[in-house]
Amino acid sequence: MDINVTIGSGDLAAFPDDNVVGDSDGVMIIPSSVAEEVTNEYEEMTLFEDFVLEQVPIVGLYPTTDQQTLIDFENWKNK
């Protein structure tokens, strides 16, 4: 086991100063040379998604978390 060395996984390399970000979907390695750009893009995208949700209220609609939505959908299909 080594510390602060470059490692390889498949055809990719991860360097000691790279950023590792993980969640339940998986892990990403973000090179330090683009970390600020990626962070700025992520923040902008998150703000835009918040804006969209305010414009089009889809919470509970998709994905469906409200039983009434399924009833409304069935009624819509039967029109």
3D structure, described in words:
41% of the residues lie in helices and 20% in strands. By secondary structure, it is of the alpha+beta class. The chain has a two-stranded antiparallel sheet with strand order 1-2. It has a two-stranded antiparallel ribbon with strand order 3-4. The radius of gyration is 21 Å and the shape is elongated. The mean pLDDT is 89.
What is the strand and helix layout of this fold?
Elements: E1 7-9, E2 12-14, E3 19-23, E4 26-30, H1 35-55, H2 67-77
Antiparallel strand pairs: 1-2, 3-4
| Unreliable segments of 5+ consecutive residues | none
User: What is the typical, i.e. mean, pLDDT?
Assistant: 89
Count of alpha and pi helical runs: 2
Major beta sheet, strand line-up: 1-2
| Share of helix, binned | 40-55%
Q: Looking at the structure, what is the overall shape?
A: elongated
Rg: 21 Å
Percent of sequence in beta strands: 15-25%
Class by alpha and beta content = alpha+beta
What is the H/E order? EEEEHH
Largest beta sheet, briefly? Answer: 2 strands, antiparallel
The number of strands is 4
How far apart the termini lie comes to 65 Å
* Tally of individual domains: 1
